[in-house]
Fold L-threonine 3-dehydrogenase.
Amino acid sequence: TILIIGACGQIGTELTQKLRNLYGKDNVIASDVREGNAAFVSSGPFEVVDALNRNQIESIIDKYGVTEVYLMAALLSATAEKNPAFAWDLNMNSLFHVLNLAKEGKIKKIFWPSSIAVFGPTTPKEDTPQYTVMEPSTVYGISKQAGERWCEYYNKVHGVDVRSIRYPGLISWSAMPGGGTTDYAVAIYHEALSKGKYTSFLSEDTRLPMMYMDDAVRATIAIMQAPTENIKIRSSYNLSAMDFTPKEIAEAIKAHIPDFTIDYVPDFRQKIADSWPKNIDDSHARNDWNWKHKYDLNDMTTDMLKNLQSVVE
Ligand code: VAH
């Protein structure tokens, strides 16, 4: 049985649906610190779990015979800059609870998300390699870098089967964005439909690594299904699909909505974005567990607008 902690978040929302389609709804327990929305609760078991409460996590594991945990609860980059102490507490101590439960034999396999936010201003920005200088300058990035070190340590020292992906910016339609610097690329689609215009909080030429959520969820399931001997990296795998700038995504939207207009008013998130790579080398993921992305900017734009139009109408 699978437990998803943070199931109501941006990744958790789609991950829960895909895992339920794959393994059957009663084998996937969704949980979040807040009450689940109606769609979730009706489509399978839901529990209120605070990722910082080890006893709550353990009691759900015992109640359902959980064998695998996807720990998707965290504060993302922009929010974490506003709440450094809580961000460190939530991002790190939730991971320690799950790693320790696995060390004690109560969990067989863990998925834990890292991010391209582990890279900092001194990291090479083009084709950022799997192994390189990593001096993250954000609270979120520091927590993800530390988390990667602990995942590798628990795997090497305690034999914990924990697997991780350094997600690029993720774009999806089924959940509202939650405080990420890359979330301009989600809001732009909503506002293109509702207002016909968007004011970007990143400058027009800010190039960032990005991925459509369908690809991200498929990669997450693929790394968890891969034979353990294929998982050669136990910190976290670079993963990539595309990279684009606010100007380029606006052009892609204009191909569907010709009158769409964009303007640029950079805010504190510009500094965060400027510390990150422009694009990522994910050859290790492609070699070790056959990763291959499917969606490019135009495919994603078509799918996003189609799905949002159906939701908006
Ligand atoms: C954020 N979407 O913006 C997340 C992600 C690489 C970016 O970590 O914080």
Summary: The chain has twelve helices and twelve strands. The mean pLDDT is 96. The pocket of (3R)-3-hydroxy-L-norvaline is lined by residues 76-77, 115-117, 140, 168-170, 180-182 (CB under 6 Å). The longest strand covers residues 109-115.
